[in-house]
Structures are given as structure tokens and as C-alpha cells.
Design goal:
Length: about 450
């Protein structure tokens, strides 16, 4: 039997279940287009009042049998289900998009945020468990499922290799939504070989099902932490969800325990492979679960600082807008530190924070700086930020702007690392190998 999966370019034909007992199930086509999860629905023609689905694409159309548009549905349900020969697929976050039609037949398109492969009912708008596999977490934490035992003879030649694959004990990371980290593994048996893959999954789980967005906020926060620690945009390689009321069942319908179902989606940042493991400015051993909890609290208290760091995921992270974003983050950080920790001692007469004093407040809040020339950085950061914001201020040359942005990011990363519990010496030692420490120079 074919696997229940969505493969780009391979459409699946099946029957649609919309949850309305009065609607007769219709044949539809589901496909991964490479950019979206698209459901194609055949229509009976232009504005046919008897078409069970046609009204989902009838914006602006007047129907004589329902002039007030209250008897029928005029948009698709948020959750739909497809059943075909491969199994069932629950589509979550559905919305109608384009349609084509003439007087006889037509096609309507629905795009879904998530496709839960194997879900058996329509209650997946909320889930009680969500797992994401983040390869960068495995590289950062070094949490492993594999133990290898090698036996050699007296000539130091390998005689046998014994590999054990076993899940390590889950590690509790933070209280919000019972966030934890666990090892994962899978094997393949290609012709003449054996392959083992291991990874690290984040998991949130709750007693009462919650919206996907609430789970994903926590997962996204940890993904952001790992990305900031390496100053590299990372992604998610796989996603699974669980509902307690949709367990494994035997042929008689009996409950055989919980199951985690694979999710297809284009809503989450995708993992791109790397040729060598990334370098991390923050050692995980010093961050650990206490640092992850601090990070979640830090994001709430210093959201105006952390938010602009999304320049990491921009199309041009070293462009002109990133200089402004880094300045916004520093401006907010200086103000918040002074208000939170100094009782506003450095605010001006209008209870505002000027940029240069704010930078000095940040440096005073750090046990160590990423560079020695702090006064020079303050002047450069001010010139770059004010020059980028104000048309009456001259901008530094492009090379100075790039290196000032690099310095700004280093200060922000150092401050975050120190707040999470990283030792000053560890930051200084890791900086020697960090990409942000490499000064931009003109090509000769």
C-alpha cells in the first residue's frame, strides 16, 4: 500500500469530508505544489444554487434562495478531511483562493496551512502536542541517540562494531506548555547497507488542546535562540502533532495508545543542510534548561529588542535596513535597561533616552564587551544609525556601515548570552572562531 504522504508534483484524488452531515461527499484533488498545499474542488458551473461547495467562491454573488447569506456557508470550514486509497489527510487553516468557471463546470482552489497525514477527524484546529525536529538543536546540544562500541584485537584492528539506538531521557526545558527536548532516530535498509539517522525534537504538550499558534510560538522562540547563538538562520526539518482523542486503534477499534502524525506545511522555516556544523557563540552547557526559560522571559520583557533581530531571516541581512533595525534594537535595549535596572537615571528631561547614553547603559550592564574600542563603536554606531534614519545627516561609507552593523550585532549577542547565563570567558573564547568577529575588508 502506498505511503500516506504528500509529494510535490504527485496529486492525490479522494473524497472530501467537510463536517456538514447534509453535504454529500465530493471527489477532490489534493497536491503539494512546491509552494502551497492546494485542494482543487470541481464545481457544477457558474453560481449553481445546488452545488454543495460553489458558494465558497461566490463573493459578491446574489443568491435568490439565500439573499441574506445566512442559510448556507460562503467560505470553506477551517478544517477539512480528504480520504483516498493512501489514507486520510486533515487540512487545517483552510481558505478559498482562486476559481475558474463557465456556465457548465468550474474549479475552486483551497489552500491549507497544515496537512496532518493520517488524522481521522476534524478536530485538529487545536492539538495537545506538537513536535518539531530542528537539526541545529542537535548540533548545539549534542544530544545523541547512538552509542557505539568498538572491539579491536591486539594489533588494534577493528573486529566488531556494535551500535545501539535508544532514546535518551527527555529533558525538560521550560514550564510554558511543558516544553521539553528529546532525542529521535530512524533507520533505513538500502540494498547492501544500513543507515541510521538521529535528531533532536522539541515538544510541547498540554492536557487541553490549544491552537497551533500557541505551540508554535514556543517552538519558534527556541529556534530563534539557536539562530541567535550561531547568528545563522536555521529551520525545521519535520513536524508532528498529537491529539489524545485520535490514538492508534486495533482492527476492533480499541485504543492502542497515543500517536504522533506527520505534518506537511509551508508555514514554517525550512531546514537547509550545511556542509559543516555551525559555530555557536553560546555553549549549550552554560545555557541549558535554565537559560531557555530565561530566554522565554527575556522575549516578553525585551520584545522590542529581540523583535528587530528578525533581520537574521531577511533576504538581505547585511543590507541598509538591517543597520536601522540593529539601531532600533540597541535604542530599545538601552532604554529598557535604564528603566528596569537604573530607575531611569540616564533618561533626559523628557524621560527619553538619547542614543549615545543608551549605548553606554548597555555596555555598563555587561561584564565583558566583544571589543576593546567601545568609545569608537559608540561614535560609529551613532553615525550609522542617525545617518541611515535622517536625510540631513551624512551616512558613513558602505564598508564602515557593514562593520558597524557587525559590531552592533556582537553587542546584542553578547548581552543576550550574558543574560542567559553564559560565562564572560566563554563568550570571549568562542568569539575567536565566530563569523561576526571577522572584519569586513575591501577586496584587493
Amino acid at each position: 500500500m502506498p505511503e500516506n504522504e504528500l509529494t510535490s508534483g504527485e496529486p492525490r484524488l479522494g473524497w472530501l469530508v467537510d463536517g456538514d452531515p447534509g453535504t454529500e461527499s465530493g471527489a477532490v484533488m489534493l497536491q503539494d505544489t512546491g509552494n502551497t498545499i492546494d485542494l482543487t474542488v470541481p464545481l457544477r458551473g457558474m453560481f449553481d444554487e445546488n452545488d454543495p461547495y460553489g458558494r465558497w467562491w461566490s463573493s459578491g454573488v446574489h443568491f435568490g434562495d439565500d439573499p441574506d447569506r445566512i442559510k448556507h456557508s460562503y467560505k470553506p470550514p477551517r478544517v477539512l478531511l480528504l480520504e483516498d486509497a493512501r489514507g486520510s489527510v486533515v487540512l487545517v487553516g483552510c481558505r478559498s483562493t482562486g476559481s475558474t468557471s463557465n456556465f457548465d463546470v468550474g474549479l475552486g482552489h483551497i489552500v491549507a496551512n497544515y496537512a496532518v497525514l493520517g488524522g481521522s477527524h476534524l478536530r485538529y484546529e487545536k492539538v495537545d502536542g506538537l513536535r518539531t525536529e530542528i537539526p541545529a538543536m542537535a548540533a548545539w546540544t549534542r544530544l545523541s541517540s547512538i552509542k557505539i562500541k568498538i572491539e579491536s584485537n591486539e594489533k588494534n584492528r577493528i573486529q566488531s562494531v556494535q551500535m545501539t539506538l535508544a532514546n535518551a531521557e527527555p529533558i525538560a526545558l521550560a514550564r510554558p506548555m511543558n516544553l521539553m527536548m528529546r532525542s529521535s532516530w530512524r533507520t533505513e535498509r538500502p540494498s547492501g547497507g544500513f543507515l541510521a539517522y538521529e535528531g533532536v525534537e522539541l515538544e510541547t504538550s498540554v492536557d487541553r488542546a490549544r491552537p497551533w499558534e500557541e505551540h508554535l510560538q514556543i517552538h519558534g522562540a527556541v529556534l530563534d535562540l539557536v539562530s541567535v547563538a550561531a547568528w545563522k538562520s536555521f529551520g525545521i526539518s519535520s513536524t508532528k502533532v498529537r491529539r489524545i482523542d485520535d490514538p492508534h486503534r486495533n482492527l476492533a477499534g480499541g485504543d492502542m495508545g497515543e500517536r504522533w502524525l506527520a505534518v506537511a506545511t509551508y508555514r514554517l522555516p525550512k531546514h537547509d543542510g550545511w556542509t559543516k556544523d555551525p559555530h555557536f557563540l553560546f555553549p549549550y552547557g552554560e545555557v541549558a534548561n535554565r537559560g531557555v526559560s530565561r530566554w522565554l522571559r527575556l522575549r516578553k520583557k525585551y520584545g522590542r529588542v529581540v523583535g528587530p533581530l528578525n533581520i537574521l531571516r531577511s533576504d538581505d541581512p547585511w543590507g541598509h535596513p538591517s543597520v536601522v533595525q540593529s539601531g532600533i534594537a540597541l535604542e530599545a535595549l538601552g532604554y529598557l535597561i535604564d528603566v528596569e535596572k537604573n530607575n531611569g537615571a540616564s533618561l533626559n528631561s523628557r524621560k527619553q533616552m538619547n542614543f549615545k547614553p543608551g549605548l553606554r547603559v548597555i555596555l555598563a550592564d555587561m561584564q565583558v564587551s566583544p571589543f576593546a574600542d567601545t568609545e569608537g563603536w559608540i561614535e560609529r554606531a551613532d553615525a550609522a544609525y542617525m545617518g541611515a534614519k535622517h536625510p540631513d545627516r551624512p551616512e558613513p561609507d558602505s564598508l564602515t556601515m557593514l562593520n558597524t552593523l557587525r559590531e552592533n550585532l556582537l553587542v546584542l549577542c553578547f548581552w543576550i548570552g550574558l543574560q542567559l547565563g553564559v560565562k564572560p570567558k566563554s563568550l570571549v573564547d568562542a568569539l575567536r572562531m565566530d563569523a561576526l568577529a571577522q572584519e569586513f575588508i575591501l577586496a584587493g
